[in-house]
Design goal:
Helix content is 74%, strand content 0%. By secondary structure, the protein is an all-alpha fold.
Length: 82
């Protein structure tokens, strides 16, 4: 499994639904830009689903879907916009 660079727990500890969704989206984009495998992120997504962490799933899933159809440069531009 790819070693993750982002501290995901910091996002989870925030109680705002929007912040958790956006935080996981941006963190996942950063992980992908730095070489995280989509298979590894899908494992994390499954774990989050099992834990019923749906806001976190939403943000992570959004980033995975974007990564499947975007270049690395496009992902970097999306990350910078956030």
């Amino acid at each position: 499994m790819t070693e993750m660079i982002f501290d995901w727990e910091k996002i989870i500890s925030n109680s705002s639904k929007k912040v958790r969704i956006d935080g996981f989206y941006k963190a996942a984009l950063l992980e992908i830009i730095h070489g995280a495998e989509l298979d590894d992120l899908n494992i994390i997504l499954k774990d989050l689903e099992d834990e019923e962490m749906y806001e976190e799933c939403e943000g992570l899933n959004k980033a995975i879907k974007l990564a499947k159809k975007s270049t690395k440069e496009q992902l970097k531009n999306e990350y910078k916009k956030r």
